[in-house]
């Protein structure tokens, strides 16, 4: 794979659910994702996917089946895939913007 710059500003936003949208680029078996959440977003089920990234703006709260962790702006996060780390994300502030690197 050749190194290349990814211009997220030129990518269209893709709606995911009410209160959630993203811009994503797939690079082989990985994807880079710019994700925005608002308080309107409610995860319908527990997510078991892995995520690694950083909160670029706002404050994110993640519920790990009763253990709630807050991630303020500038905080990194690393969540392993699997049922032991099942989680639900929630925007604490009016807007949360995340940059994530994930398995595609």
Q: How would you characterize this protein structure?
A:
With 104 residues, the protein is mainly beta. The protein has a single domain (27-103), classed as Jelly Rolls. It is 0% helix and 51% strand. It is built from no helices and 9 strands. The protein has strands spanning 14-17, 20-27, 30-37, 51-57, 60-64, 67-71, 76-79, 88-91, 96-103. The strands form 2 sheets. The protein has a 6-stranded antiparallel beta sheet with strand order 1-2-3-9-4-7, with no helix packed on it. Strands 6-5-8 form a 3-stranded antiparallel beta sheet, with no helix packed on it. The mean pLDDT is 95.
- Spatial extent as radius of gyration: 14 Å
Gross CATH architecture? Sandwich
Q: What is the CATH top level name?
A: Mainly Beta
CA-CA gap between termini: 16 Å
Question: Which of globular, elongated, flat, extended, rod-shaped describes the shape?
Answer: globular
Give the name of the CATH superfamily: Jelly Rolls
Strand order of the largest sheet: 1-2-3-9-4-7
Q: Which percent range describes the beta-strand content? A: over 45%
Order of helices and strands: EEEEEEEEE
Count of individual beta strands: 9
Looking at the structure, the CATH topology is: Jelly Rolls
Instruction: Find the structural class using helix and strand composition.
Output: mainly beta
Report the total helices: 0
Please indicate the count of domains. Answer: 1
Could you estimate the helical fraction of the residues in percent? under 10%
Mean pLDDT: 95
The largest β sheet comes out as:
6 strands, antiparallel
